[in-house]
Specification:
about 20% helix, about 260 residues, 5 helices, single chain, elongated
Length: about 260
């Protein structure tokens, strides 16, 4: 007896959904009352069953009332907080209000949202930090990713421009030392990101704040891009503070001494 076409179609959908579910493994899941209205959001962190690269998971699903309201994917791998946060950012982990080993939420960190932000951290490869994902909750209950950086290590959040809204400060590259007695550093300036006009507006790098922050807190300023063609000379031959200069010029200065 031949089955009706409708039944065959439904059977194929069922088989496909089962196969799709079987391709994933759950790494962590929990619920949290994000808005404080006793209607919890559900968080599911998962990875493909055959995933064997860096980090622990590659996908975060956020659900509300049985519906997926946001899905974040990172094929390079997302990491545990213990693996992702460095000495500069470890203090953030102590303020986490979530019972999660993988994602971070801090009550005092809201940007322009009424509710705390959610932060995910990628796995660091070689000389580059891991990714950074920041998710904000809008007034309409819907979360949105407001920052997605492929490489970024948090240093701090601070109100640099005194507008009562903190800026994000960090660096997109890890510094490497080289040269005579390792007295040169690659040029890897800090970047400063500001929040947008609304709770779920995208964050953007502020070039003016980035420059002023580096002039005060780094070795100098040669633009916002990391560069191996520009060097930080820690101990200039004539003495004095570290200086930023072209690599070839730095080599020439040392060859004369």
């Amino acid at each position: 007896m031949r089955l009706p076409i409708t039944l065959v179609f439904l059977a194929l959908i069922f088989v496909a959904s089962v196969a799709s579910a079987a391709q994933w493994r759950t790494v962590e899941k929990f619920s949290f009352d994000w808005r404080g209205d006793k209607i919890p959001y559900h968080f599911v962190l998962r990875a493909p069953v055959d995933y064997d690269a860096g980090g622990d998971y590659t996908q975060l699903q956020i659900m509300l009332k049985g519906k997926v309201v946001l899905e974040v994917n990172d094929n390079d791998g997302l990491a545990k907080l213990a693996d992702a946060l460095t000495l500069d950012s470890q203090k953030l982990k102590k303020k986490n209000i979530l019972k999660s080993k993988h994602i971070l939420m801090i009550t005092s960190l809201k940007g322009r949202s009424k509710h705390p932000l959610l932060l995910l951290f990628g796995w660091a490869y070689g000389s580059s930090p891991g990714s950074l994902h920041i998710i904000a909750l809008g007034d309409d209950e819907t979360p949105k990713q407001i920052l997605n950086l492929e490489n970024f290590e948090i240093r701090s959040f601070a109100d640099i421009d005194k507008d009562k809204i903190p800026e994000l400060i960090g660096y997109p590259c890890f510094t490497q030392s080289w040269g005579p007695e390792y007295s040169f550093l690659t040029y890897d300036p800090f970047h400063v990101y500001r929040f947008g006009a609304t709770a779920i507006s995208e964050m953007t790098m502020d070039l003016q704040l980035t420059e002023s922050y580096n002039r005060k807190n780094y070795y100098g300023w040669a633009g916002p891009e990391c560069s191996e063609d520009t060097a930080v000379v820690l101990h200039p031959p004539g003495g004095g503070k570290p200086v930023v200069m072209d690599v070839e010029k730095a080599k020439a200065v040392f060859e004369k001494h």
